[in-house]
Structure formats: structure tokens, C-alpha cells
Write a structure and sequence with these properties.
With 276 residues, this protein is of the alpha+beta class. The chain is 51% helix and 10% strand. Among the domains are: 57 residues; 103 residues, no CATH class. Helix 3 runs antiparallel to helix 4. The radius of gyration is 46 Å and the shape is elongated.
Length: 276
């Protein structure tokens, strides 16, 4: 009959830890089964194997760094926009084509997507050749006001075309000047597309906002200037009459022979002129 194993008992014995009493050494004790050291609010443990947990940690670090560093600047449609992270929200603020925008998003990538979509929406459309021809036909038919409206609607889009502050928006002045010149040129048969005209026009306008009335006045002044220039080139130059005192002084200094030769030369010239 095999011998029965005698249970070990006595002070300091703990059967769960191999007989060693670890009550005085908490760091060597196991974690309670109903607790965890993971704080899900900070960076959840990645249990999927896809690395999403590390992405969350990177996002958290990026946002905290952005909040500490303060606003940064990016350019949207050539205009500066301030980007900042505040109170767990990304903010983007700036002015584009005269309009003030304040956009928000939960993360930086989403905010940048919004800003890029805004730049595309606010971009001024450059007319295709087919669209230009439609505007030109309106000008040639005497419908210059309709041509201006149609060009503006194509360039800005229907929603922005309906804004009340288009005329007073300084951001749109270059576009307005471009439309005025394009429609005036194609509505004015006598208009000239020459370097001389453009140089004269720029000096005449002197930075003023362009409209058809100013261009009409400028072209009228340009034509008068061209006519005066042609007359100056064709008109013969007249010799200034000799000063009598200077002639008398010259005669006093001549000898009798020189005076006689001069007299005969003048008489010969007068005789030949009468024969012509």
C-alpha cells in the first residue's frame, strides 16, 4: 500500500504560490483577474492585428503637438488659411475670393479635404474656346450686356453669380476688367489689338476699373493721337527765315567779290524758280 503524501502546513505557506509567502512583495504578485492595466480612453490595445491601435496613438500625439505648437498656415487657392487644433476639434479659417470661411473637422485630414473642396468650388472657371465663341456671338449681335452676364455666370458658377456684392468685391476686380475688355473688343468692329493701343489704353485708364464707356473714350483719344502723329510725319519741315541782323552782319564781313557772287547766285536761283 503506497504511502500517503503528507500535506505541508505551517506558518508562511501559501499553496497558490509554490509555498512562498509573497504578501509582503506586491510587485511579485499576479494581476487580479477582474482588472486590467489598459486605459481604453488613451490608446486602446490593438487586438485586431491591423495596427489601428498604433494609428490612434499617432493621431493623439499629433493632435497634442498641434495644440501646443499653435496655428499653422496653408494656402488654399493662393490665399493663406490658418489651421489650429483646439478643444479636440480642428479649425480652418481664411478668406477666399472676398468671402470669409471658418471650417471645422474631427481630424486634420478631414479638414484639409474640406479646404481642397472649397478651393475647387471657389476657383474661377477659364472659358473654353466654345464658350468664348458664344460670348463673341452675343457681342457681334449687339447684345453686349447679355454677353457680360453670360461670361460672368460661366466664370463664377450660378451660386456665386447670384451674390449681391460681386461689383464691390475687390478680389473679383481683375476678372471684371478682363470681361469688360473681352466683350468691348468683340463688340467694337474698329477696335485694334496692337501694342500701341494697349500701351495707350493702360496710360489712359491709369488703374481705373474698366467698363465699355471708358474704353470707348480711350479709343477715341487713341485714334486722334494716331491721326496727329501721321500728320506730323507727312507735313514738310519749313526752314526758319533768316534773321535780317545776322544776314547784314554776314554781308559786312564779305569782300566786294563775295557780295557780287552772292548776288548773282540769288538772282540765278530766282530766275530758275520762275521757269519751274
Amino acid at each position: 500500500m503506497p504511502a500517503t503524501k503528507k500535506a505541508i502546513t505551517g506558518f508562511g505557506y501559501d499553496p497558490d504560490f509554490g509555498g512562498i509567502d509573497l504578501s509582503g512583495c506586491p510587485s511579485a504578485q499576479g494581476m487580479p483577474k477582474d482588472q486590467s492595466f489598459i486605459d481604453e480612453r488613451f490608446a486602446p490595445m490593438d487586438r485586431s492585428g491591423t495596427g489601428h491601435g498604433s494609428n490612434a496613438l499617432k493621431k493623439f500625439i499629433t493632435e497634442q503637438a498641434a495644440e501646443q505648437e499653435g496655428p499653422s498656415t496653408i494656402h488654399v487657392g493662393g490665399q493663406a488659411f490658418k489651421i489650429r487644433f483646439h478643444e479636440n476639434i480642428w479649425h480652418g479659417e481664411g478668406t477666399l475670393n472676398g468671402h470669409r470661411y471658418r471650417l471645422t473637422a474631427n481630424d486634420r485630414a478631414a479638414l484639409l479635404d474640406k479646404l481642397m473642396a472649397l478651393a475647387k468650388e471657389e476657383a474661377i472657371h477659364e472659358l473654353t474656346r466654345a464658350e468664348q465663341l458664344q460670348v463673341i456671338r452675343l457681342c457681334q449681335n449687339g447684345q453686349k450686356h447679355e454677353a457680360i452676364d453670360y461670361y460672368l455666370k460661366l466664370a463664377l458658377g450660378q451660386s456665386r453669380y447670384a451674390d449681391d456684392d460681386l461689383i464691390s468685391n475687390p478680389e473679383l476686380l481683375p476678372l471684371m476688367n478682363q470681361i469688360a475688355e473681352f466683350t468691348w473688343f468683340h463688340a467694337t468692329p474698329q477696335a485694334q489689338d496692337t501694342d500701341q493701343w494697349h500701351q495707350f489704353k493702360d496710360e489712359f485708364l491709369n488703374g481705373r476699373p474698366i467698363n465699355h464707356d471708358l474704353l470707348d473714350a480711350g479709343f477715341e483719344a487713341f485714334q486722334a493721337h494716331q491721326k496727329q502723329s501721321r500728320y506730323s510725319l507727312l507735313a514738310p519741315e519749313r526752314e526758319e527765315p533768316a534773321d535780317p541782323l545776322e544776314v547784314a552782319a554776314d554781308l559786312e564781313n564779305m569782300t566786294d567779290a563775295q557780295v557780287d557772287a552772292t548776288y548773282k547766285g540769288v538772282a540765278r536761283e530766282l530766275a530758275q524758280s520762275h521757269r519751274r
